[in-house]
């Protein structure tokens, strides 16, 4: 049995850890030590890989020495990154049958989730039901990479669908940690070395960001337990400037599906106490509801400015 001074649980042979990784390398950066801690006591580790990280043109241009990347190029890059992930998982002692790759489009999870009738949530729910995790580790809702925040939304909705209640911890890759309870999972020197070896296996990602990724992997692993505060209302955390509002779009996602509005038509109320409130949108079904504010213009900048927020 293993335990961290600050970790709320002990890991045992009965621990079944499920790590949600939007792209190859997130499992290592987010949970490379935790994965080893669970494995060293004989626990089971499964990785759900949402995308193959195939939409990653700048490292690909550099390593393949070509400017144009077509469909075949993306397929080739996906295969390369899957191979790198297989090597990384070996370093972290995760058996090959622990990898569950869904092959969804890299940088495409937001449009996919907002598509009416998509079955992303049931697909993850089916995996969770099959794997019966005791601990799920998923990206933080506030992660600025749209695939990461959306992965959080997907996991929360999938868990609500299964009615299973494993522990749920989040990790942040892009963005600053939010205030609130969190704890650190630490490993031995050998485990920290293995984590760097797993990162090195993702060689394509080191081509442009070696120092940054190595420093990130050297940081202690910090997780935040998901705690939903009941009764905090439905105040949106955003107050966009008036001149931008005509272009903004608000999306709401819950188990009943997706609703979309332009800002002007969204059912919002301006309240003195909290800014814009969406009181009628959060349901009473006890399942989570998430809103997303975005500016749907073409831009080379992929990171979210506002991103997702949970309505309670
Ligand atoms: Zn990622």
Please explain how this structure is put together.
With 312 residues, the chain is α/β, with parallel strands linked by helices. The chain folds into two domains: 2-225, Rossmann fold (3-Layer(aba) Sandwich), CATH 3.40.50.10320; 245-311, no CATH class. It has eight helices and 15 strands. The chain has helices at residues 26-40, 57-64, 71-91, 109-114, 120-131, 146-162, 189-201, 203-218; strands spanning 2-3, 10-11, 16-21, 44-51, 99-104, 135-139, 167-171, 183-185, 221-225, 249-254, 257-262, 269-271, 275-277, 289-294, 307-311. The strands form four sheets. A seven-stranded mixed beta sheet has the order 5-4-3-6-7-9-8, sandwiched between helices. Strand 3 (16-21), helix 1 (26-40) and strand 4 form a beta-alpha-beta unit. Helix 1 (26-40) runs antiparallel to helix 7, helix 3 packs antiparallel against helix 7 and helix 5 (120-131) crosses helix 6. It is globular, with a radius of gyration of 20 Å. The two termini are 37 Å apart. Bound molecules: zinc ion (ZN). Residues 22-23, 26, 145, 148, 173 line the site of zinc ion.
Query: What's the total helix number?
Result: 8
The rounded Rg comes to: 20 Å
Q: By CATH's scheme, which homologous superfamily of the largest domain applies?
A: LmbE-like
In the sheet with the most strands, the strands line up as 5-4-3-6-7-9-8
Low-confidence stretches are: none
CATH hierarchy, class of the largest domain: Alpha Beta
Q: What proportion of the residues is helical, as a percent range?
A: 25-40%
Amino- and carboxy-terminal Cα gap: 37 Å
Average pLDDT, to the nearest integer?
88
The structure class reads alpha/beta
Largest sheet: 7 strands, mixed
């Amino acid at each position: 049995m293993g335990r961290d001074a600050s970790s709320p649980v002990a890991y045992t042979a009965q621990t079944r850890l499920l790590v949600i990784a939007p792209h190859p390398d997130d499992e290592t950066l987010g949970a490379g030590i935790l994965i080893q801690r669970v494995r060293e006591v004989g626990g089971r580790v499964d990785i759900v890989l949402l995308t193959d990280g195939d939409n990653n043109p700048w490292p690909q241009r550099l390593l393949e020495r070509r400017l144009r990347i077509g469909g075949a190029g993306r397929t080739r890059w996906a295969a390369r990154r899957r191979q790198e992930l297989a090597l990384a998982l070996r370093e972290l002692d995760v058996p090959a049958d622990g990898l569950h790759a869904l092959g969804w489009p890299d940088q495409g999870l937001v449009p996919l989730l907002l598509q009416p009738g998509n079955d992303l949530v049931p697909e993850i729910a089916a995996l969770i039901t099959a794997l019966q995790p005791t601990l799920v580790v998923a990206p933080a809702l506030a992660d600025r990479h749209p695939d990461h925040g959306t992965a959080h939304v997907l996991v929360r909705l999938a868990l609500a669908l299964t009615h299973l209640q494993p522990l749920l911890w989040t990790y942040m890759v892009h963005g600053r940690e939010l205030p609130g309870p969190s704890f650190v999972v630490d490993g031995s020197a050998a485990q920290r070395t293995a984590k760097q070896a797993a990162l090195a296996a993702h060689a394509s990602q080191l081509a442009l960001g070696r120092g940054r990724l190595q420093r990130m992997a050297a940081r202690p692993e910090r997780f935040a337990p998901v705690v939903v505060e009941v009764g905090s209302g439905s105040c949106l955390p955003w107050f966009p400037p008036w001149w931008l509002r005509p272009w903004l779009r608000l999306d709401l996602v819950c188990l009943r599906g997706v609703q979309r509005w332009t800002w002007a038509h969204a059912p919002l109320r301006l309240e003195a106490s909290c800014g814009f409130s969406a009181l009628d949108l959060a349901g009473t079904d006890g399942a989570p509801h998430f809103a997303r504010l975005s500016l749907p213009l073409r831009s080379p900048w992929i990171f979210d400015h506002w991103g997702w927020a949970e309505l309670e």
